[in-house]
Design a protein that fits this description.
The structure is a homodimer. In chain A, strands 2-8-7-6-5-3-4 form a 7-stranded mixed β-sheet, with helices on both faces. Chain A contains 14 helices and 12 strands. By secondary structure, chain A is α/β, with parallel strands linked by helices. Chain A has helices spanning 15-34, 47-52, 64-76, 97-109, 119-135, 149-164, 169-172, 191-199, 220-232, 255-265, 320-324, 360-394, 421-438, 465-491, and strands at residues 87-88, 142-146, 181-186, 207-210, 236-243, 268-272, 297-301, 313-317, 399-401, 409-414, 442-448, 451-457. The mean pLDDT of chain A is 97. In chain A, helix 13 packs across helix 14 (465-491). Chains A and B meet through helix 1, helix 3, helix 4, helix 5 and helix 6 of A and helix 1, helix 3, helix 4, helix 5 and helix 6 of B.
């Protein structure tokens, strides 16, 4: 084979030497994951690492061995943190060792899963079919894997807007619609929905935010009134976005009620189930997702509560024609022939991307190796841990729970008696920064009723109960230290 | 460590056993790549493989060993084909072994590169800075890695539309613009531009296709007239999309001329350089890209002519504020604090995705290991191969070259004297299907001046000169066989 190589190939002269580095890298990767609990969750990138990452683009190559040493020193030694059992920031999933093998193999096979009659495309189709089954969507629905919930929300909302339009939006654009099209969502809806409504050319004026009840669920009666009001004012109610698991507190809208309303009012129902949709897998919390299977489109991530490595999300759309409508373009160079490689499914007609990586493989391998029962158990464990944490917080005089905990998100703060709201905000901001920078645990933050909250979102199959005990203890310690140093500063 | 695991973790009980499968998989992956030339380029997915890929979602798990055996049998044995030296379909890059290691390590570290003060984010920033240097963009420009050229085009065009709008599109939407905003591109522009203009809510009516000259380059004088005409008619000329390497034939618009026109007329210049922008790396063809460094935004793929595994693309935008304008949303749960992990760059404000995989690592490792000189050589070799193929075709009486070959794309057909255009189309369609299905070589197809063309696009670092000889010989053989069997069918 070697004699026959292209003289300018990027393949190695010595495959065994390259593989040897690969085997070292694989061992190091597994060692990193097996021992991850021993180190800090995250640390500020050290100055020498930052410096090393400003070198100019190299004209000449460096040996793979030397480059890999840099990868170890700079990157493996400084992960983002979400592989650690005490990372609970935003809603970042943990990843799995099986997923690592999946992504390695995907890069080797290296298909463009944009379309065609290929086995990688069949694997993606099977994964989509599995997702339909898990979410209660009919076999005739369509779907697509993508980078995550943001893109899945974009696709679902686009499909709804185009399907409900009174003109052919593909030709005339939003300016051609006789009435302003309206999208409805709760005040707690994820920011990717704001971005999607904006980018589709509707603008923020087309997104109407409906108030929530005390459990952060959309007020369906207020939504009904808003729809009526918009109709009376000459606007065009088109899409309802329900949320199955809000990013702030894990609240579930009454999706069943939204589905009834959408049916009566002839609106499209899109559901953002970024992490919450996966609660369907766990009998303990499945009831929260009631009605999700009635959505016209459903968005969810696989790198969150299916724990596959970044990135992987999924959108399902009940009506494949509606799904295609905003996206399909078939120029001559993409028109399928009656045979050969082009005679297959063209996923590129169901989303923005024409070139599409083989993210289906890690999902396929993960589901086959673990089975859905293992996911159900891991998800249920995360929910139980959130409840445990909420109870621990409620039992501490100096801590305050800031929102109900329906699923896997706990919002709280350090607030001993006598500390005002105004003083609690900066204290808890400083506390969280210290907690993160010392590497003990990594919650993120949000505002709940306008107040700064330490926010723990558990989509982590490595978390253990003692990790939450440690969090509670350390937050109280840090809170007392900060409060006392502030008192002494004031006194001095 | 083991005693301390979460009882529901998806980590293995036995890390060594998992790693053993990983080592096997790595060896198999390298063997696949090293020996890929020996097998067919692609084959129709066998019926038993198709059947195996319709099993329902598994509730219980299967051993990794058994699942991996299925991966080998079903998937490694049936790749998409673009890793093979004789795959020249669409513009699919080859991938590299170094990229395989990069994606494995990225999945292990598993960061969400949406944002924050993390080393993976610094790696992506360095890769973006490298891309600015390679493309002649100023250090102060912004950029983003993403899934590919389609998304990069979407981002660049969105930035242009929002920057040039007469109202705040974020609020009012496209319907709020007082005049129809117009986007200009040649008739040869890539379909992802059609899709982007549509999805931004402008609609096809806002995309004006300008004729091309005999070398498939935009007619800049016709473009100037179209802009004047639109202004007179009360429309709002906003964005010019130039193409550096058209998908059909590899033609380059006069980007320098477009930049002059855009400056004079106050339009945004976006350049789609999906593969062609990389010609800047090779001195032999660098002149074709003149003016690309003057674009307001530039889109290009890294999985095409930088040969990294799928998926990876890049957009650069000269003005970071314009880049952010369509995309940024900062809800309380994403607002950076003054320290801790959130106090870094938020790439999510520069594109659709909030969750973002670590595709920067494979690019970083590849550029460091190979250096840009090696890419320059591989790119130049592909260009030389395209010229060689064009000469071979021109020298064959029964073959016809259908378009000039400025770069790496060759459009041709089998057309012996006496074969009409009407008869040549179905004959060449059938020929291409047979060529693909027998696995000899994998060009794709297009239309050139309305006629079916066999299209060879070379972004393949494994291709060797004899591969093109084989293509020419086999196309002539197949053409003769088909023509003769058609004559005998007619005769019988």
């Amino acid at each position: 084979v070697t004699a026959d190589r292209s003289p300018t190939t990027l393949d190695p002269d010595d495959w065994e030497a390259l593989a040897a580095v690969g085997h070292r890298a694989l061992d190091d990767a597994m060692e990193l994951l097996e021992g991850v609990a021993e180190g800090p969750v995250w640390r500020v990138p050290p100055a020498e690492v930052q410096r090393a990452l400003t070198a100019p683009v190299p004209r000449t190559g460096t040996s793979l061995e030397a480059v890999y040493d840099d990868v170890r020193r700079l990157i493996l030694a400084n992960p983002h943190g979400n592989i650690h059992p005490r990372f609970w920031g935003w809603v970042n999933g943990t990843g799995t060792p099986v997923g690592v093998l999946g992504d390695m193999l995907a890069a080797a096979v290296n298909p463009n899963v944009g379309g065609g009659n290929t086995v990688p495309a069949l694997v993606e189709q099977q994964v989509i079919d599995w997702m339909k089954a898990l979410m209660g969507f009919p076999p005739g629905a369509s779907g697509l894997l993508g980078t995550g919930g943001s893109m899945a929300n974009f696709i679902g909302i686009a499909s709804g807007v185009y399907a409900k339009a009174e003109v052919d939006l593909r030709d005339a654009g939003i300016a051609g619609a006789p009435r302003r099209m309206m999208v409805y969502a709760s005040s707690q809806v994820h920011s990717s929905v704001d971005r999607a409504v904006r980018l589709l050319g509707l603008g923020a004026q087309s997104l109407r935010r409906i108030p929530v009840d005390e459990e952060f669920r959309i007020d369906t009666a207020a939504l009904r009134l808003a729809i009526e009001e918009d109709r009376s004012a000459g606007r065009h109610p088109a899409v309802i976005v329900g949320t199955a698991g809000t990013v702030n507190t894990g609240a579930f809208d009454d999706v069943e009620g939204l589905a009834d309303l959408a049916t009566v009012e002839d609106l499209w129902l899109h559901v953002d189930g970024a992490f919450g949709a996966m609660a369907r897998l766990a009998p303990e919390v499945r009831a929260l997702t009631t009605g999700v299977d009635r959505a016209d489109s459903l968005a969810f991530d696989l790198h969150k509560w299916l724990y596959v490595p970044y990135d992987a999300g999924c959108v399902l759309v009940r009506d494949p024609d509606a799904h295609r409508l905003p996206f399909d373009v078939t120029p001559p160079y993409l028109a399928p022939l009656t045979g050969g490689i082009s005679a297959g499914t063209w996923f590129s007609n169901y989303g923005i991307e024409l070139s599409r990586g083989f993210r289906a493989l890690k999902v396929w391998m993960s589901l086959r190796v673990h089975g859905t029962d293992a996911y159900a158990a891991a998800i249920a464990a995360n929910v139980a841990q959130a409840r445990y944490l909420a109870e621990r917080i409620a039992a501490q005089a100096d801590l305050e729970l800031l929102a109900p905990v329906p699923l896997n998100i706990v919002c709280f703060r350090y607030r001993p008696s006598g500390l005002s709201d105004e003083a609690a905000d900066p204290l808890n901001r400083g506390l969280l920064i210290r907690l993160q920078e010392e590497g003990t645990a990594l919650p993120s933050h949000t505002l709940v009723h306008g107040r700064f909250a330490i926010r723990v979102a558990i989509t982590n199959h490595r978390s253990r109960y003692p990790d939450f005990d440690l969090l509670v203890e350390r937050v109280i310690q840090l809170g007392r230290e900060i409060a006392s140093s502030e008192r002494s500063t004031v006194a001095s």
